Amino acid sequence: MKLFIEVVIYCVIFTLVVKLFAGKSPLDCLYFYPEAVQERVCELGLAKREDIAQRRKVFVSIFTSIMAVLLIVIIRYVNGVHDYWIAYLQSLFFLELMNWYDGIVIDKIWVAKDPFWLIEEVKDIPYVQTWKQVLKKRGFLSLVWIIASFIVALIVRVL
Question: In whole angstroms, what is the distance from residue 101 CA to residue 95 CA?
């Protein structure tokens, strides 16, 4: 039960970081949108390609750092894990649930239902992933998290 509560907190923090970077307008976070949306927004002069790329770099670096440090702190210091394989399994548990939470709750529920994410000038272009796209992307990322969990477990073990 404790791990489940920790994962819920982890996903809430995930959501808060995304919301923080989303800013006051979906134009502040165009890097979340499909390429077709980004292209049209740039053609309309609502954003510049360089700005989107720069914001993506900033988001990815800060977001990844926050979520990685938080994961390591939870596993090593909150849960007191020293064993490599327990750290690996806890890391995999957190990362896989975060992965599917992102695809289902963030993409298919929040982004699809909240009018905040709709960019009026390009509302004719689909910006929410289809279920097939979600399953394909999350399936691939599941494999990535299997590998990343080895690295997290190593860091936890060394600390």
Answer: 10
d(CA 126, CA 112): 10
* Mean pLDDT estimate for the chain: 97
Break the chain into its structural domains and give their ranges.
Answer: 2-158
Over 46-109, what HEC string results? CCCHHHHHHHHHHHHHHHHHHHHHHHHHHHHHHCCCCCHHHHHHHHHHHHHHHHHHHHHHHHHH
pLDDT tens column, 80-135: 999 999 999 999 999 999 999 999 999 999 999 999 999 999 999 999 999 999 99
Whole-number Å distance between alpha carbons of 135 and 74: 28
How does 32-41 read in b/e, with b if 16+ C-beta sit within 10 Å?
bbeeebbebb
pLDDT value of position 99: 98
Identify which of 55, 75, 63 has the alpha carbon closest to the alpha carbon of residue 106: 63
